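User: Structure please.
Assistant: Input sequence and predicted structure:
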Amino acid sequence: MKSKLVHHVIAAEGRPPWYRSDGQNCDCYIVGIAGGSASGKTSVAQRIIKNLNVPWVVLLSMDSFYKDLTPEEVEIAHRNDWDFDSPNSYDYDLLLETVTKLKQGKTVDVPIYDFETHKRVPNKHHTVYGANVIIFEGIFGLYDPKVLAMMDLKVFVDTDVDICLARRIKRDVAERGFDVAGVLKLYQRFVKPSYDTYVYPTKRNADVVIPRGLENLVAIDLLTKHIQRQLQERKMQSRWDMARISAPEELPSNVIVLEHTKQIMGMHTIIRDIHTSRHDFIFYADRLATLVIERALNELPYETRIVTTPTAKTVEGLGLKPRVGGVSILRAGGTMEIGLRRVIRDAVIGKILIQTDPSNGEPQLHYCKLPPTLCDDNTFIFLMDAVVGTGAAGLMAIRVLLDHEVPEDRIIFLSFLAGPQGLHAISSAFPKVKIVTSFIDPVLNTDTLYLEPGLGNFGDRYFGTENE
């Protein structure tokens, strides 16, 4: 059976944000599955995924990392004379880079290999990000020492060679367009010798050997329970600990608070008032967002520009050097998008959906959409959220941006209101990220962590609810 890659651009219930960028504290769990051709590796992997019953597992096939063949090599392959079962047929550099990034929690583009043209499909790939479990399967899944060292669990599927041959004939004839004679020729000339020489010896690298493949339901069930137990042990309950930390009175140096003018205090009075109508709430929230964003623009680099006036005179002024984009932490962060558009009309906006698990208070990443231009070298990102409480959602959102190769010093975090605990938590983890807010709420009620301090549910008041 041809392997299929489970593709996740988003990651429901993704990893907690409190892991180091070097991946040392990342809880991504990698399972390597090896075995002979048509031994049932993919079927075993898919059964494990089904038994785990979680939406954040990625199945990564080694078939995606075949090397592109030259035109001359393609002709040889069409004559069934090319050895696809040699370790030299795979791009181990790309494979190692991909697995390393996944282990570190970073986004990767996995190539799509076309078995008819024997090349990777140009300009197409699977984007994978945020998986907690990666199941990597292939005949050489336990072969390369560097890839092997990153595996948390190593599995070898040991199936009778005659059964493997029957499955391979059925698969290659039905799915890959081979004739029976061609399949037998490849098997006798390449597949069987490669299995004896390279694949079967990797059995000694396995932690678990599954005889008979998918038929061995007991072994697969035990393996699944082991993975579940490992994941459970890696869970962290850091949000509650952060909420209990006593924040120092002095704010971090990277935090910028708008001057408490009468205008600012007046707008905060209006949006805090429970009797304020939704129409007025939106109006003053948009005004306040505009002021926060204008203040954040002062933190960006400018360059000298000479312009010609309508009266044909030249004037020396300043121009914004980088591009500016916005990323909303949904749903409340979307309340600042209108303010961003008013200040920067052509700003590109991405969105991240992070929600709190009510059972343990942990933030969970459910959706991530970042246009490519947000992640280039000439763009500063305004990360927008209405309220910073414990800082858990902000930590995760910043971590997502860093995983997408956005430099830390190019992120400016914007909010209407912030609690000291959240500001210190974010500043401690990411000191190069500047934070701009309009007001500091001195008290965060640790008994109501799911409520936004001082403002109620900002997103509901701005966007309304289903009953409105």
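Residues 76 and 82 are 6 Å apart (CA to CA).
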